[in-house]
Design a protein that fits this description.
This protein is α/β, with parallel strands linked by helices. Helix content is 38%, strand content 19%. It binds NADP nicotinamide-adenine-dinucleotide phosphate.
């Protein structure tokens, strides 16, 4: 499959590398066509990796991943032509974190709204599915790094889009438990889990852990 990734940071690179490893073709997008991190990533990945602007990544991808900083996500999504977003599934991994006052970060949006909803509202032609934002990037694409059972949450308004994401998570990345929380308003809880994740990271002294839901 051709996949477009918005974002040149560790998340874009890690998800992109895993997708290339699985045999997909990936175009990484950023604000500029000659982003140095993207160029180095392409060099390390071989012929199934390429890079360009956010617009190029949107035009290329049958499926899109939003791996931009939460504060930059809405502006990143202004780059693509509307037609290149039309009806595509966007897997939104971003968290609306504000580090401007140091650690721990605060959320730029919460309680009555979320980044996932803002993206869906601004781009009704996209089918936004929030996923993978509640764990460290290494766990996202290698859930088998943890030996005990653990969960990934998804939410979004489009059932077919969520079924596609469910397949990507289970069949491509190897997730055994995917919990569909419902429509895109559930992004609020998924994003507001971040302060708890940060407290746990401090307490446990590692990034390699995840949430597990017991009934
Ligand atoms: N690190 C993790 O383990 C983890 C786990 C879960 C979720 N997340 C979330 O995943 C996302 C990516 O994290 P990251 O650490 O890989 O990267 P990051 O440093 O948060 O973001 C880097 C990307 O954001 C883009 N960006 C920044 N400001 C922008 C703006 N004003 N307009 C457009 N684009 C802008 C950059 O564009 P350029 O390429 O043009 O510079 C770059 O591609 C974040 O939202 C983060 O909260 C991270």
């Amino acid at each position: 499959m051709n996949i477009g990734i918005f974002g040149t940071g560790v998340v874009g690179q890690t998800i992109g590398s895993r997708l290339v490893e699985l045999g997909h073709s990936v175009k990484m997008g950023s604000r500029s066509a000659d982003n140095e991190a993207a160029r180095a990533w392409v060099k390390s990945q071989g012929k199934h990796a390429s890079h360009g602007t956010y617009a190029d990544a949107a035009a290329f991808g049958e499926i899109l991943f939003n791996c931009t900083s939460g504060r930059g996500s809405l502006s990143a999504l202004e780059f693509p032509k509307r037609g290149d977003l039309n009806n595509k599934v966007l897997i939104d991994v971003a968290n609306p974190l504000d580090f401007s006052r140091g650690m721990p970060p605060t959320l730029t949006v919460c309680n009555t709204d979320s980044l996932g909803e803002q993206i869906q509202r601004e781009h009704p032609v996209l089918r936004v599915v929030k996923a993978l934002n509640t764990m460290n990037v290494d766990v996202m694409v290698h859930p088998d790094r943890l030996r005990s059972p653990h969960d990934v949450f998804i939410c979004g308004n489009d059932k077919e889009a969520k079924a596609t994401v469910m397949r990507i998570l289970t069949e491509w990345f190897g997730w055994e438990s995917v919990i569909d929380l419902g429509d895109i308003t559930n992004s609020r809880g998924m994003e507001m889990a971040l302060p708890l994740w940060i407290s746990l990271q401090k307490k446990l002294g590692t990034n390699i852990f995840n949430f597990r839901v017991a009934k």
